[in-house]
Amino acid sequence: MMVEKEDLGLSLSLSFPDNNNKKNTQLNLSPFNLIQKTSWTDSLFPSDRNIETCRVETRTFLKGIDVNRLPAMGDADEEAGVSSPNSTISSVSGNKRTEREANNCDQEEHEMERGSDEEDGETSRKKLRLSKDQSAILEESFKEHNTLNPKQKLALAKRLGLRPRQVEVWFQNRRARTKLKQTEVDCEFLKRCCENLTEENRRLQKEVQELRALKLSPQFYMQMTPPTTLTMCPSCERVAGPPSSSSGPTSTPMGQAQPRPMPFNLWANALHPRS
DNA sequence: CTATGGAGTCCTGTTACATCA
DNA sequence: CTTGATGTAACAGGACTCCAT
């Protein structure tokens, strides 16, 4: 039961998603790779087009072969379990409910087969608790690829003795859990970034204050050492080396309007030694 | 070539149930 | 035994793409 929890395969990454997923592009707004878009689709089906082709193949395939038949199960609603709940009869949302209720009956049958002692044939949904083995296999499969094409779904469902719909739901929920976990990680990371920046800002503000104070006291001005954090030359953005001891405060663009030269010049000149 | 509807899948949010402290 | 918290299977609904017509 805790299998998923222990290994969500999370990692913080700054790389942008490959965005092979043609849908829900808004999910990629995060700077982080929220859900690992693994390469299985890429390797198996290099383009979306091919994925779709595969789906079509599967549809055709399904018409001929009743792959969803569970061992010793009633098959009144087999077709419904093959794919999305929207798939039967029509995609009008009103039908989803009907079909899912049918699926529930299906599941109850299944549960009884699995040794469940629930016997009420009511419409209330009964939750199937996946066995450890089933969870482990699903998890393993998820590690390889976090989405399934119809063939994979069917194969997995067959292997696990579940309905394809259940496998589909499991993967959906698993992706949601992964994303949630990743969001938490991202949130934590951004929080730390924010804290660091706040601290940095505080330090810089303090430094600015110090510099202003020094600007007003000429006796300290000449002996001033450059602030340790201001190591970037404001004009060329190069990192400054050790400050040169004596240079005329004349070349900085920032000093032009100042009644007094800017302290920047003390080390900025080290970057632009005039010949 | 374009418009349209069906089919399939995904994501997000919610609900309902199972389990455990 | 009851109860609240937690995990998760299942569901609802909207969005999107592809494809056939």
Automatic annotation (TrEMBL):
GO terms for cellular component: nucleus. Pfam families: HALZ, HD-ZIP_N, Homeodomain. Residues 76-130, 238-275 are annotated as: Disordered. Residues 83-93, 241-253 have a biased composition (Low complexity). Residues 180-217 form a coiled coil. Keywords: Coiled coil, DNA-binding, Homeobox, Nucleus, Transcription, Transcription regulation. SMART domains: HALZ (SM00340), HOX (SM00389). CDD domains: homeodomain (cd00086). It is found in: Nucleus. One of its GO terms (molecular function) is DNA binding. Gene3D superfamilies: Homeodomain-like. Residues 106-121 have a biased composition (Acidic residues). Residues 121-181 form the Homeobox domain. Residues 123-182 bind DNA. Belongs to the HD-ZIP homeobox family. Class II subfamily. This is Homeobox domain-containing protein.
